[in-house]
Design a protein that fits this description.
16 helices; Growth Hormone, Chain: A; 0% strand; mainly alpha; 80% helix
Amino acid sequence: MTQSTDFRAAILALALGAFAIGTSEFAAMGLLPYFQADLGLTEPQAGHVISAYAIGVVIGAPITAMMGARLPRRRFLAALMAFYGVMNLLAAMVPGFALLAGARFLAGLPHGGFLGVAMLYAADALPVGQRARGAAQVIMGLTVANIFGVPLAGWFGQVIGWRFGFGMPGVIALISAWAILKVAPRVGGNPDARPWDELQALKNPRVLWTLAVGAIGFGGLFAVYAFLTASMLANANPPGYAIPLALAVFGVGGTLGTWISGRVTEAMGTTRASFIALASMALTQAFASAVVGDWVLMVLSSFLLALGAGLVIPLQTRLMEVAGDAQNMAAAMNHAAFNAANALGPFLAGMALAAGWGWRSTGLVGIALTAAGAVVLGLATVRDRAGRAAAANAG
């Protein structure tokens, strides 16, 4: 399969869907004070609205993977993105906590399935040696959302109303769904596939080890980033524009890191690229810990931290290599693993703060998680080599 003009347009439509997902997921955190005040919610209730989305991602990933086993990928992706758009529009209209949390949970369901299968679709549109580049082109839509979509949604929340902050990515998602149906070639899908076969990915040790690297190692990035703005406000006396600037440069760093990671993965392979990504993450987390109190350097640390977002590319590419016939499940679960990391990292960092260890401790927690992810990757690599050696001896 070559990347014709049709495939380039299809990848752009898929990246637009990733942009909608990135805007909705990350903007929700910035919209929290506004819907909390408007709906009269307590702080725990408002936090549950955010958590409901992450829970939806984790639950939805295996479900959507099985649902899409037999469907042509074009129709499957368009359907997921249309559902995502409708649920975001519903979140923009509901009157109270229970319905808002429910709408956000439902919006999270197609997240992993869409991003995972979209990256597979884009990877298959390129020659074998450039598959990582195709996956990176899709996921860059999510990172670009942090540059433009999230600040714009936050502006809507502040100036017009929080409902517009949810409604905007909903509209973008519907446009993406229409574009996918309009321009994506009719390829992929196996009408003879058995949906339950996708569950074989969850019995594949190589898949599970790879997912564990993301769920643990990526938690280091979230441990620091989740508390970056709070740390700036508490320690650095930043000017009013510093927080939006930190959020924007995080998006720039994530976009650049994803682009670089695609090239590094192609040049060096998934294992080496993963180790490089984890090592760079640990260094940037150490830098973030060291510069607490200087808002200029903390903004710089936001950019550097985001470079680690490129870890998703070698891990996604590795899953393509080891998942066998359960490609949909493995790809979707990769994003569920990253959402698990989004829960694990801030939870452990919050425990360190509650214990009185200070704001620099978030960086130390991040380094510990990233190092743990590298250990898991090392064990997975040793296991793979042992398996290949055993197979060679048996042969």
